[in-house]
């Protein structure tokens, strides 16, 4: 499991100690971090119930239309995967399961000119976004079967670990 003090700086785009997020008060830090915990638990509860989880995707506005591309979410997913690439290696080598990563990888690499010659069409993107929740559930089920957790059912981080990962003025 990736601990909050390792992933929160990535979530908040903190490349070094000077970029460390500072809250106005401990109450503000607790509030923000409790929202993150609630989101984490919503995802875990949804997936534990065997239901697909539809990720929250940033929507861009163009010509009066809001569109979710999914690239930012997919790049974040892949950054998380690479934080524990050794742990993911068995999954990556498993031909029966690794196909569930194809939609995520497709979205993550779309804006890398070294990896992609053409952008996705709106139709291709819609198909990928439609299967994404099922892929997430299938990945989750794989890890449910292949992981023994130390903290119980959801293996969720504790709130005090989250608080330790940020500063309060």
Any idea what the radius of gyration is?
17 Å
Can you tell me the overall shape?
Answer: globular
Order of helices and strands: HEHEEHHHHHE
Number of domains: 1
Number of strands: 4
Quaternary structure annotation: single chain
What proportion strand?
5-15%
Give the overall pLDDT as a whole number.
83
Which structural class is indicated by helix and strand composition? Answer: mainly alpha
* Parts with pLDDT < 50 across at least 5 consecutive residues: 153-169
Binned, the helix content reads: 40-55%
* Strand arrangement across the biggest beta sheet: 1-4
* Main sheet specs: 2 strands, parallel
Number of H/I helices:
7
Tell me the span between the first and last alpha carbons. 29 Å
Task: Looking at this protein, list some descriptive labels.
169 residues; mainly alpha; two-stranded parallel ribbon; two-stranded antiparallel ribbon; 4 strands; globular; disordered C terminus
Summarize the structure.
By secondary structure, this protein is mostly helical. It has helices spanning 4-11, 26-48, 71-83, 85-93, 102-109, 122-146, 159-164, and strands spanning 22-23, 59-62, 65-68, 167-168.
Description:
With 169 residues, this protein is mainly α. It has one domain (4-168). 54% of the residues lie in helices and 7% in strands. The protein has seven helices and four strands, in the order αβαββαααααβ. It has helices spanning 4-11, 26-48, 71-83, 85-93, 102-109, 122-146, 159-164, and strands spanning 22-23, 59-62, 65-68, 167-168. The strands form two sheets. It has a two-stranded parallel ribbon with strand order 1-4. A two-stranded antiparallel sheet has the order 2-3. A hairpin with a 2-residue loop joins strand 2 (59-62) and strand 3 (65-68). The two termini are 29 Å apart.
């Amino acid at each position: 499991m990736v601990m909050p003090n390792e992933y929160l700086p990535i979530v908040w785009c903190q490349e070094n100690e000077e970029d460390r997020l500072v809250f106005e008060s401990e109450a503000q830090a607790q509030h923000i971090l409790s929202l993150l915990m609630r989101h984490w638990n919503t995802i875990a509860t949804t997936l534990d119930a065997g239901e697909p989880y539809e990720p929250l995707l940033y929507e861009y506005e163009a010509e009066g239309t809001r569109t979710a591309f999914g690239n930012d979410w997919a790049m974040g997913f892949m950054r998380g995967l690479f934080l524990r690439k050794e742990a993911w290696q068995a999954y990556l080598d498993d031909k029966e399961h690794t196909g569930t990563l194809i939609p995520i990888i497709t979205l993550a690499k779309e804006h890398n000119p070294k990896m992609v010659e053409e952008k996705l069409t709106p139709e291709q993107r819609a198909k990928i976004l439609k299967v994404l929740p099922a892929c997430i559930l299938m990945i989750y089920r794989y890890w449910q079967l292949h992981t023994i957790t130390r903290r119980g059912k959801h293996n969720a981080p504790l709130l005090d670990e989250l608080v330790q990962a940020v500063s309060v003025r």
